[in-house]
Amino acid sequence: MVQLSRSLLLWRPFPYVLALICTVSILGIHMLPNMDSMLNENNTRISHVFLRSQIDYHKEIAPFARRPLTTLLIEITQDILKVKAGYAFIFVNFLLLGLSGVLIYRLSLILKATKKQGLINMMVFFTSFSILFAFFPPVFTYDEPLQYCFLLTAFMAFVRRRWFWYVILFTLALIARETSILLLPAFILLLPGTQNHPRKKLWPNLKKNSLLILSPIFFLRMLYCLFHLPPKTTTRYPYRNS
């Protein structure tokens, strides 16, 4: 048994196979009979009508319309594969969910974790409440899988000091969901030089890199101003004859 475990750890595709198994298992849980998920609505079939309404809802309601990336991916998938909205919704979200688990594993290795620790981190991710029951009420996941992917790749770019990609990826994470901004303080722990001398290096590095760390917020505001501010209108008042 021990030898088998070691062989699996050394098998390079194992993390990807494990992520696939976890993702399919989560989908299976959501599609079980009498399970009231947003995918089947307490039925044994995919609820295409309800999922189509959710896509339209995210296009029409202003707070959600400012997060167009997931909706765009779903509609592109629907057009390319010529499938119903429900199939496109499930394909995009569960593909991104599985990819998020793989990215957790890859980020763990970048942060000097062992393969075993990386696999444990991935399993903790897949078995957490908001992932395991992602499409059940009241969780109602929609934009989160894409947000996870952008956040994790942004962390990877930051750790590797690839600043251009960090700015792009974290800006996309903010567009996917604005709550990504809550993770900005975590980048302080990953600043250059703070790992070995956290107290001595923190403030100088924070001053040096603060503009880069915060720049995605400014890009997000610029994009909102360009695409979401209503056009200026001029109100004319008719003159009254005295």
Mean pLDDT: 83
Assign an overall shape.
flat
Alpha carbon gap, first and last residue: 99 Å
Estimated radius of gyration: 22 Å
Strand content: under 5%
**What's the β-strand tally?**
0
Helix content: 55-70%
The stretches of 5 or more residues where confidence is low (pLDDT under 50) are 229-242
Characterize the main sheet: none
Q: Give the count of helical stretches.
A: 11
- The helix-strand sequence is HHHHHHHHHHH
**SS-derived structural category:** mainly alpha
State the main characteristics.
flat; single chain
Task: Give a brief rundown of this model.
This protein is 66% helix and 0% strand. It is an all-alpha fold and 242 residues long. Helix 2 (14-30) packs antiparallel against helix 6 (85-110), helix 5 packs across helix 6 (85-110) and helix 10 (163-176) crosses helix 11 (198-227).
Characterise this structure.
The protein is mainly α and 242 residues long. Helix content is 66%, strand content 0%. Helix 3 packs across helix 6, helix 5 crosses helix 6 and helix 10 packs across helix 11. The protein is flat and about 55 Å long. 29% of the residues are buried.
SSE topology sketch:
Blueprint: H1 2-10, H2 14-30, H3 48-60, H4 62-65, H5 69-81, H6 85-110, H7 115-127, H8 129-132, H9 144-159, H10 163-176, H11 198-227
Helix pairs in contact: 2-6, 2-7, 3-6, 5-6, 6-7, 6-9, 9-10, 10-11
